[in-house]
Amino acid sequence: MNMLSQLVPAAERPKVPASPSRHKPRILVVDDDPGLLRLLTIRLRAENYEVEAVEGGPQALAAAGRFRPDLVVTDLRMEPLDGIGLLKELQVRWPGLKVIMLTAHGTIPDAVQATQMGAFGFLTKPVDKQELLDQVQKALRISGFGASDENWRAEIITRSAVMEEKLAQAQMVAGTDARVLITGESGTGKELLAKAIHLASPRRNKPFVAINCGAMAENLLESELFGHEKGAFTGATSAHRGLFMAADGGTLMLDEIGDMPIRLQVKLLRVLQEGLIRPVGGTEALPVNVRVISATHRDLHQLLADGQFREDLYYRLNVVHIEMPALNRRREDIPLLVAHFLAQIAKESGARKIYAPEAVELLATADWPGNIRQLQNVVRQNVALSQTPIIPVELVQQSLGGTSGHLPSFDEARDEFTRSYLSQILQITGGNVTQAARLAKRNRTDFYKLLSRHQLTAEEFKQKY
User: Fold this and answer.
1) What's the CATH number for 161-323?
2) Nearest 5°: phi and psi at 72?
3) Per-residue pLDDT tens for 22-44?
4) At 333, which helix (H) or strand (E)?
5) Distances from the Cα of 311 to the Cαs of 266, 269, 276, 308, 369, in angstroms?
6) Which pLDDT band, with edges at 50, 70 and 90, does 253 fall under?
7) Residue 125: Cβ-neighbour burial (10 angstroms; 0-12, 13-18, 19+)
8) Cα separation of 279 and 407, whole Å?
9) Pairing relation of β-strands 276-277 and 286-287?
10) CATH assignment of 26-142?
11) Do residues 75 and 30 lie in contact, with contact meaning Cβ atoms separated by under 8 Å?
């Protein structure tokens, strides 16, 4: 039995995430004509596509978040949200998602306008079967669907709906060359997501290079990024290509971009605008083809307000924004991550250990200000210090120190809410029990019982308010 099976029930174990080539292409079809909707669904399913069919724009937006389509085929004329309005919303929420418009002959100019706004293409009604299939295949091929046999997201361990949403967004943008800004607290896995985007992109066979912009002095960072010529500064006995050139054709991740000095921000902006690199001490500008993904745990809006980050660079980098959730927002992933880390350690050192059930519970309910990185460190420390094959809860408590939190039980959470509600309603009525009971839609006797159970008295609110 492996580590994961000892920690997580079989029904809850994570499935191996499917790479883009390992699931059927998912197509969302939107049309307010039930007959046409049924016909399109039959045609697409006959070609082994997974199809979700809805009869309007609002339903399409709701379905897209749940179904995570690889392509949307939508009618142009719909109420209350037409195809163009739907296109705009899809572009905001899922950049890179391809959309094909369906239009009657008289609305072709509108379809052309939609194409100019970012729609992949349009088909006229009645829809020819072969034209539909050709457009669908072309859209999926251009979006990068099925182009890679690699498990692009293998390093990201999750069963969280929040994380799945982020991964869906990442996969959609991966097929484009749009720059991505990844934000989130330290330790949430921003570099892993950047690497996943690279592996899901057409650049996957070229280098992925990452650098921390806050980890080195300004001159050294400049040299590492842009390269330098021989003799460009004291001690430079040979030329250096720099990471932009090293990542040519691939992806360069600029981690902690918020810590980049203003002078280098200016130089970076010029590179992004011109597609040319000028090494330190060099006179020749060299062409470079690099996709830039940046990341930061800092509040860039505050840095903009403080004059510490250039607004023009911000908008160059922030074409698509993905915010990584804190570990406390994806607690269901903690047992999976723990099992993953234990398996890693066992492979590296041969130390095969598991956690006692109550220890796993404590890990799953603790506060994690350092997020996944902190969780990994705690697991490694526990494995190193445990003198038995089963890691006891006491050792976890010792490792967490003052950071261990408490996830309330259902009854505790309900009682906390009820007490807060009663306090609020008594504040509103100034301690008048009759009015408070009426607002709560309870009789006075029941209301007094609730106050007594939660150790509240109307008098204290009369005195205070």
Assistant:
1) 3.40.50.300
2) -120, 130
3) 467 889 999 988 999 999 999 99
4) none
5) 11, 10, 21, 9, 29
6) very high
7) middle
8) 53
9) antiparallel
10) 3.40.50.2300
11) yes
Question: In this structure, what token pair is assigned to residue 85?
Answer: 């309005």
Going from N- to C-terminal start, the domains of the chain cover: 26-142, 161-323, 410-464
Q: What tokens appear for 28 in the block?
A: 């969302």
Rg from Cα positions in the chain: 28
Phi/psi class of residue 298: alpha, beta or left (left: φ > 0; alpha: ψ in -120 to 50)? beta
pTM recorded for the entire structure? 0.62
Q: How far apart are CA 287 and CA 143, in angstroms?
A: 26
Joined together, the tokens standing for residue 159 give 């069963």
User: What pLDDT is attached to residue 108?
Assistant: 67
Would you state the structure tokens that stand for residue 463, as one six-digit string? 């005195």
Through-space distance between the first and last CA atoms of the chain, rounded to whole angstroms: 62
Distance in angstroms (rounded) separating the CA atoms of residues 160 and 158: 5
Could you give the angle at the alpha carbon of 163 between the alpha carbons of 209 and 312, nearest 5°? 50
The Cα–Cα gap between 252 and 246 comes to: 9
| Torsion sign across C-alpha atoms 252, 255, 258, 261 | negative
**And the tokens for 271?**
């590179």
57: helix, strand or coil: helix
Do 26-142 and 161-323 agree at the fold level?
A: yes
- Beta-bridge partners for 100: 73, 121
